[in-house]
Amino acid sequence: MDIIRKLREEFGITQSQAENTVRLLDEGNTVPFIARYRKEMTGSLDDQIIRQLSERLTALRNLEDRRTQVRTAIAEQGRLTDALAAKLDAAQTQTEIEDIYRPFRPKRRTRASIAKEKGLQPLADIIWGQKLIGTPEEAAKAFVDSGQGVDTVLDAINGAMDILAEQISDDADLRKLLREETIKCGTIVSKKTKDEPSVYEMYYDYREPLKKAAGHRVLAMNRGEKEGFLSVKIEGEEEKLLQRMERRLIRRSSDTADILRGVITEQVIQRRNTLIHGVISSQCQGNSHRTIRPSGKCANGGSIRIDYLKTAPLRGVSVPFSSLVIFRPVSGGSTSPPSL
Question: pTM of the predicted model, to two decimals?
């Protein structure tokens, strides 16, 4: 990832502004110092933009570090393919990278790993391939083995379902689909858990479409839940999610459709609960990138400053007095303050 290009695109600044600001930050200069004494290098970026750029720079570098770590870990297992490398390169968030790494991460002993030890992976592959000759029960008879702890046909099918459940859970594309659909259609709901006053009272009986929820409100609900004042959940159109996943995974004439449909339903319900943290992180991250863009240039070269006097109040943001003075371009491309 070209970090300078990414910053330039996200903040709407020039290549030199991005390069110079990053260089000044890397040299250890503080944000107030850069904003006040290095205007000629930053193109007069204000302290708010520089601070946001500094935070985003750190996040992008951490993302690249994690991408490199995951790539190395998968390569050491001898499982890094060109397609996987391309998918890693295309990942834009930590969550996407972790989803890609999930199938390769060392795991504790799970129901799926126990089922694999019992020799049920081939049965799971048969069900997943949806090319049965006969019924699933007939296929499972070949895997009944009391010595392995598979006493009945039902035990064999249940073990195969455990393997398929983990397989679906580890699929990065399906996790991304589930997360995006939840953000698009989900509603964040919070309820009080204590009958006592707190700073979270506005969230004691609160619901809002997740795609419209501001990052600070989502974080406040998350914090209220951690402190024991709120119960937070995400409600969504599970039926629509199930239909999308079924269309993606199940063939119309599949003899194993019922088994796969049961696994998918279970995974959607479970993943919706376990993916809430990832959804909240993605939503907060998305909102945090909606930065106030620095001003550009007029056609004749004069500076355009943001007119804070005409904007809505910025809660919790200190605006320097100099930013309140509106500079307008005059002839010759120079700028001058209005008469006071």
Answer: 0.60
